[in-house]
Each structure stands twice: as structure tokens, then as C-alpha cells.
Amino acid sequence: MGTTDMGAYEYVNCGLNVKLATSVTTHTATQSVVDGNFVCYCNSDNELLLALDTNGTGAVITPSQVKLYIGNPSTLSYNSAGGMITNTAGGVILERRWDVEPTTQPTSPVTVRYFYTNDNYDDIVTAMAGLTSPTTITSPSQLQFYKVTGGSSATFPNPHDTGVTGIVLTNGTTASTTVWVNGTHGVQDHTAEYLVSTFSGGGGGGGGGSSPLPVELIQFEASPAASHTADLTWKTASELNNSHFVVERSYDGRDFQAAAIVQGNGTTQNVITYNHNDNTIDLAQNTVFYRLRQVDFDGTTAYSPVRRVDFEGSIIPNSVTLYPNPTKGTVTVSFTDDEAESHAIKVIDNLGRELYKQTFDGQAIELDLSSQATGIYFIILDSGESFKVIKQ
Q1: How many CA atoms lie within 13 A of 363 on its CB side?
Q2: What is the distance between the terminal CA atoms of the chain, rounded to a whole angstrom?
Q3: Rounded to a whole number, what is the largest CA-CA distance in the chain?
Q4: Could you give the CA distance from residue 246 to residue 34 in angstroms, rounded to a whole number?
Q5: Which of 91-105, 115-129, 295-309, 358-372 has the lowest mean pLDDT?
Q6: What is the pTM of this model?
Q7: Whole-number pLDDT of residue 385
Q8: Which CATH number fits domain 318-392: 3.40.50.300, 3.90.1440.10, 2.60.40.2550, 3.40.47.10?
Q9: pLDDT number for residue 315
Q10: Is 65 helix (H, G, I), strand (E, B) or coil?
């Protein structure tokens, strides 16, 4: 029997070069074929669902244990954080989710080759541009892919659902459990190749506000310690491409200088605790201010709130109130029990850019954030006190 010419996809019984599944349904593999280093899983129409390099990993997977869900619409959009998506601007999920339930989990990482069509790519570009805090996508390398690790019993868990945890992968040149590598399939379709330590499920998407999952700082404390030193402790709930933290110190709350560098943990969904003791404080200074400058591998930076340490007592408590927080528009900053006649205030975005700075008289000021994009902002006072504000 001869073959049927299908253009870029000449008919074969499954393999890396057959056409991709595109119909809206849950596809279950009915066959598997070894093609090079990969085991290719296809449905009964010889359409490719997923490819896995399980060589030497000990994984045991039958065709029926590999599934691919294709939904309609082809993307889901969110304008807020949720589940494993900690980006406050939300993001877009591609409704092309894979799931593997192996007989035996691997004992070493397995390479996954995930496939998506050019139509899928066009749809996610459109959806990302339509977010409240939009992201412009000009290349597949700007997308992120994810691997769910827990928090849901669903076969195809939504990474935005409450309690869902997982790993978000960013684009790079060498595939790993945190980095995916861009590729092509056929004439115009796409692949994402990365490693997984265990099987569950995953998919693709992208973050809103031109940002993927940020390093989410959930705690930052500073306190005086023995011998005129200061103990700094901070925690992150998740990290993405986090190269390092620069501990910055100031004696006036305005001019900061680098005091130390603490290495980050790259990309992780685990809570990480960091500690640093600053033992280089000028003995003549009894008040010290600290902030963290977080630096990504690509040089992108973001700043933490400022913390103040007083060696004649303890950290000065806030004499300032801020409301409402979160806000959709204006924020009022009110000083209490304060005899100062004037104050200086500035607003910094999550990338460390100064958006607003003003000196004013009186005990309160109203800041208008209505024109700013959805996200996290820092309001910093000349006293060294600071607030993390969520703009909805």
C-alpha cells in the first residue's frame, strides 16, 4: 500500500513528524512509537499528543496513561494572582494541558516534548494583549510553561485554582526542570522541551504586565543585634530566575549603598528563608535603614520595602496609616502623633522605578494610582517607613 502525501506530515503510524491533535476533547493515547530518543504517544487518528525521553529513567508508561486536553476557548485569562500564579497581574493559560499517570514514576528526570500549534500561539498572543495589564508577545520564547506538583486531584488541574502548586519554566538554551527550550514542529507549529522529575501534568501560558511569576517576598525583618550589628531575615514564597539579593544600607533613609550580596535560588516554588548579619555598621550611627534589591539573571531588578533599625531601642514602629489597601484608585497616607511640619514621599514600582516624589505640608496626603497598571507598588517615606500597596 502506498503513502498519502500530507505536505509537511507524510502519513506514518505515529512518530515525531505526524500532525498534532487539534480537536476540542480529551485525547487519550492508543499507541506509542519510538522515534530517535523519544517515545511518541498518538491517538487513534495517528495524531501526536506528547513525546517523552524515558531512556534510563526507570519510568513505565503505557499509551492509555498519556492524555491531552484541548479546550474551547483555546485560552483562559486571569487578571489577578491565584494558585501557583503569584503574578498579581495574572496571566493567560493555554487550554492544551497534558497529563501522564505512569505505572512507575521515574528515578531520574525525563525529557518532555510538548507540542502546540501556530493557531495556539496566535491565540495566546491575542489573549495576552487583552489583559487588564497587557503583555506584548513577539516570540514563542517569551512564553512560560508549567508543571503541576500538587494541590489538586483533577486530571488536568488549572494552575490558577486555589491550592494548586507547581514549577514555572522560563525559556533558555539548555532544558532542565526549570528551563524550557524552544523548537519547531513541521512547517509552522511549535515545541517546548524540558525535564520533569515526576509525572503529573502541565501546559503553557504567560504572565500579565510584561512579567512572569515574580520573586514573591512574604517577609522582611531587621533587628538590632550584639556588638552594633543588625540581623536581617526575609522569606520568599516563590522565585523565578532569581540571581541574587543586594542588601542595601542607608543612614538617612534616602541614599542607599550596597552592604552585602546574598545569592538567590534561581527558580523555585518552595518557601525560602534568607539570613544576613550586617557587621559593618558605622559605630557612630545609631539609626540604620535597609532594603533589598532583588536581581534576576537578565539584570531586571525589584526593591523591597525599607526597614529601620534603632540601636537605642528597637525597630521604630509605624506612626503612619495607609488606606485602602488593596486599592483601585487613590491611597491616603496619614501621619499620627507626628510633630513634623512637612514630609517627603515617593512611589516606586515593582521594577524599582520612581513614579512619583513630593514634599508636602500637613499630616495626610492622597496619592492617585488610578492611571497605574495593576500590580505591586511601594510607598516610601522620608522617615524610612514603607508600605507595599496592591493596585487592582
Answers
A1: 8
A2: 62
A3: 93
A4: 49
A5: 295-309
A6: 0.57
A7: 64
A8: 2.60.40.2550
A9: 39
A10: helix
